[in-house]
Amino acid sequence: MGRVIAITNQKGGVGKTTTSTNLSACLAELGKKVLVVDIDPQGNATSGLGIEKNELENTIYDLFIGECELDECLQKNTLENLSVLPSNVNLSGAEIDLIGVEHREYILKKELDSIKDDYDYIIIDCPPSLNILTVNALSAADSVLVPIQCEYYALEGLSQLIYTINLVKKRLNPELKMEGVVFTMYDARTNLSLEVVENVKSNLKQTIYKTIIPRNIKLAEAPSRGMPINIYDPKSAGAESYRLLAEEVINHNEDGSYTPENIKEEKGKKSKKWKR
Ligand SMILES: Nc1ncnc2c1ncn2[C@@H]1O[C@H](COP(=O)(O)OP(=O)(O)OP(=O)(O)O)[C@@H](O)[C@H]1O
Ligand SMILES: [Mg+2]
Fold this sequence. Notes:
Rossmann fold; binds magnesium ion; 7 strands; alpha/beta; binds adenosine-5'-triphosphate; 14 helices; seven-stranded mixed β-sheet
């Protein structure tokens, strides 16, 4: 059965979409069957994967409001092994449309449960807010992956996010787990990036992925060509890092070897990956 991972952080521009699309594409490259679910009205994951978001007959919005069936909005095999539940600006109306709708926190879960068996991974790209759409993602997810941008205010808002995750866990989805934290836009030329990593590591009692995503211009360019990084520039540092992250996610899930305990043991040692 597919593992559903919500990629979330209510802070804007921290690398949620870049991580959703490129992690998904790298998982697909490794032979995993992947579904990307775009629940952000900005539709960046949709367009970043080459779908013309404003020319779609149906999007996830129509699914949310019960105006289409899942099959009618699913974009199958956009890339090899990778399908997309697309979104566009219409989804910004969902918050209002869903007022008073019964079990509105579980709409996405209900849909994803019906197709979970068709995929190895279902990756949900969340909007930069803790609204009903994000609550739907957290209710549907098995785990949460939080991208953290290597910048001065990285920790700001994280306690609110962790509070929300715990609240959803308590009230809506008791099985919800913390997949972990991944650092993005790491700039090896500045001390600040390293300081942020060290600061978050010592303040956050969460699994932290060993792979750190570097700041890489190719990662910023790829979405404008509608391609994930492994296709746009397969040899770039960005592609290499998202491949490593994909391998880590697979290992994490398949042999359970990557636990918070062995992170603690590694403290103080700097692996090659940290130095990149
Ligand atoms: N590792 C990176 N190197 C260079 N640029 C990056 C990297 N990661 C993300 N970017 C760029 O930073 C910007 C924000 O990234 P992204 O859209 O992934 O963040 P987000 O968290 O999804 O934003 P939002 O909160 O608006 O949904 C984008 O222009 C993206 O191309
Ligand atoms: Mg985004």
